[in-house]
Inverse folding.
């Protein structure tokens, strides 16, 4: 419980200090708005009204694979904590777990889903 | 004294995020407000003295699945779709049915506690205890998870390929 | 908090007259102020240091004027300047999200300081899920970065934000895998617990616990965490030759300063994680225990940060496909090999 209190305290304090500093900066700084200055930066050209392009599907692939492997790594943390208690049986259990997912990685690799071009 | 207050604040935050998700016009804004809900839920888990689940909530939901959602909205979004989502009739009907089913499930789940919903922190969860039950009692489900993740991986590649061909 | 109240040696006179709750609150206040001070000083020092290092690597001298002695006041002058600059928000930008994004990125770096063990009794909160907590809280910077790119309403920002997020999540896997061998050696997730296991000299450090595998894991952790915090040679999200400045293109003044502060805090945090998990944390190499913990830890951290900077000013930036190749096809399989190699080594040797 005391740990939680520390976390709450830190969240509030840090957010407060950061907001205060940003607020001070907004308050102190000059406020000279101009139609041209406030345009989004586009290397000197005219900016598009908003960035309207679609993003390629590979972002989705990476995010999805990330979730799957992230879950796997979390399981590895749990195993890591009690690895000494489990000994060899635990090692074989996790070897099976990782083996299946390693096959998945190999499949994904072979199908070219990891290629980023 | 502190517990009910922080619970109320976190619950309000979670609810507010969910409502923002419903009423923000832009899908990206919607996902970002869902992040607030996820973090508030993590806070509630932390309050229930379960730092392990809280950390997993942040890692898996707030950190990973929300990034996926953002990438997917960026992928499906077209410039002209920045306006509000249409409330056409079939979509609304389908959404209502799904929502009603979810509500039913929730009511049933809450009822199953029989008024003993744990709102006050118990002893903190030990990570080693969780790990022992994972590699003891729940070993077979745990190994099956790897198969589930493998199927998901294959599915991702198949779907991704199709998306690549069409775009 | 109990930990702090018991362990942190506040003057007895202060605690004597106060109720335990108030005293604990005071301790909490002091520790929070201390960590904020560390973060601010660290940011200012590292910015100045990096400018000096980059200058000397390129046969220049760097800042020399401000403060007379090697420009030591440069960062403070910059800070004051940034505080007084106009905060420009581009037209059509989402103003609230735009201001919120640097806060999210900064908070995700700052909150990672909570479970850092500075000494035997010097820790804000020894969370029992310490390593998991740091992995969780730092993963939120991906959200902040996309937020910044999206709110700016600028295509370079959005590209930079998306790329940064893709890079951060891709490298989270190798980082996570490279942490596991250290957990195998120490059997705990608590940061303080991991340090305690490594007492008694350099030969007890986790880096040597699993033979060659933990050494390689340490190297992989260092490389992958460089990419995780978007540092060169992995600084593609702000590749100025293609993306202007990436996700913080539109930021100015204090909002930009917070992104900058977050970057240097993240460098510090990943160096602390590497030091705690593999290099014995606040234990000195000879196991003498003469030097105070914070000094030993800082020495290790600054050494690692120096190598991070050295890399930045030595290696050219990778291409996007090379970056993904390294993450998924080199470091991830290597991480698996390390985990099993270290496990077998620890059981057999």
């Amino acid at each position: 419980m005391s740990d939680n209190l520390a976390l709450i305290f830190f969240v509030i304090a840090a957010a407060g200090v950061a907001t205060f500093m940003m607020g001070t900066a907004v308050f102190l700084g000059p406020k000279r708005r101009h139609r041209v200055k406030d345009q989004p930066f586009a290397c000197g050209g005219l900016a598009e009204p908003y960035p309207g392009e679609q993003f390629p599907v590979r972002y989705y692939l990476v995010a999805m694979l990330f979730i799957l492997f992230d879950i796997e790594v979390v399981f590895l943390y749990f195993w890591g904590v009690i690895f000494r208690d489990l000994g060899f049986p635990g090692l074989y259990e996790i070897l099976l777990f990782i083996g299946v997912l390693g096959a998945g990685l190999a499949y994904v690799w072979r199908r070219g889903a990891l290629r980023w071009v | 004294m502190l517990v009910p207050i922080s619970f109320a604040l976190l619950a309000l935050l979670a609810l507010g995020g969910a409502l923002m998700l419903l009423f923000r016009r832009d899908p990206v804004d919607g996902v970002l407000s869902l992040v607030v809900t996820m973090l508030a839920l993590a806070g509630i888990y932390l309050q229930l003295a379960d730092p392990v689940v809280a950390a997993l909530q942040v890692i898996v939901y707030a950190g990973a699945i929300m990034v996926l959602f953002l990438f997917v909205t960026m992928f499906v979004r077209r410039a002209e779709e920045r306006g509000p989502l249409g409330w056409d009739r079939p979509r609304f009907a389908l959404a209502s049915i799904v929502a009603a089913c979810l509500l039913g499930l929730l009511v049933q789940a809450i009822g199953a506690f029989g008024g003993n919903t744990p709102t006050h922190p118990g002893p903190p969860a030990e990570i080693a205890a969780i790990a022992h039950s994972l590699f003891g009692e729940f070993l077979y489900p745990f190994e099956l998870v790897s198969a589930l993740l493998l199927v998901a991986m294959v599915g991702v590649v198949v779907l991704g390929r199709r998306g690549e061909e069409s775009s | 908090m109990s930990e702090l109240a018991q362990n942190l040696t506040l003057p007895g006179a202060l605690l004597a007259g106060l109720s335990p709750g108030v005293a604990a609150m005071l301790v909490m206040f002091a520790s929070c102020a201390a960590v904020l001070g560390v973060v601010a000083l660290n940011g200012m020092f590292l910015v100045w240091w990096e400018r000096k290092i980059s200058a000397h690597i390129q046969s220049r001298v760097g800042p020399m004027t401000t403060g007379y002695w090697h420009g030591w006041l440069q960062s403070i002058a910059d800070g004051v300047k940034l505080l007084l600059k106009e905060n420009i928000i581009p037209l059509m930008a989402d103003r609230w999200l735009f201001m919120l994004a640097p806060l999210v990125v900064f908070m995700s770096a700052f909150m990672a300081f909570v479970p850092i063990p500075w000494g035997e009794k010097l820790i804000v909160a020894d969370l029992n899920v310490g390593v998991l907590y740091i992995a969780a809280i730092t993963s939120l910077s991906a959200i902040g970065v996309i937020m910044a790119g999206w709110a700016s309403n600028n295509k370079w920002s959005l590209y930079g934000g998306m790329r940064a997020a893709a890079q951060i999540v891709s490298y989270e896997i190798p980082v996570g895998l490279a942490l596991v061998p250290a957990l195998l050696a120490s059997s705990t997730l608590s940061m303080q617990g991991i340090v305690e296991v490594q007492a008694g000299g350099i030969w007890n450090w986790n880096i040597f616990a699993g033979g060659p595998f933990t050494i390689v894991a340490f190297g992989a952790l260092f490389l992958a965490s460089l990419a995780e915090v978007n540092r060169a040679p992995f600084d593609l999200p702000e590749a100025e030759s293609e993306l202007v400045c990436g996700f913080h293109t539109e930021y100015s003044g204090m909002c930009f300063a917070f992104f900058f502060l977050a970057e240097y805090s993240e460098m510090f945090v990943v160096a602390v994680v590497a030091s705690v998990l593999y290099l014995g944390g606040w234990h000195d190499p000879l196991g003498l225990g003469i030097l105070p913990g914070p000094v030993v830890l800082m020495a290790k951290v600054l050494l690692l940060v120096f190598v991070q900077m050295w890399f930045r000013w030595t290696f050219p930036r990778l291409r996007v496909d090379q970056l993904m190749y390294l993450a998924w096809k080199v470091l991830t399989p290597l991480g698996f090999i390390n985990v099993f190699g270290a496990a077998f080594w620890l059981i057999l040797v």
Q: What stands out?
A: Chain A has a mean pLDDT of 80.
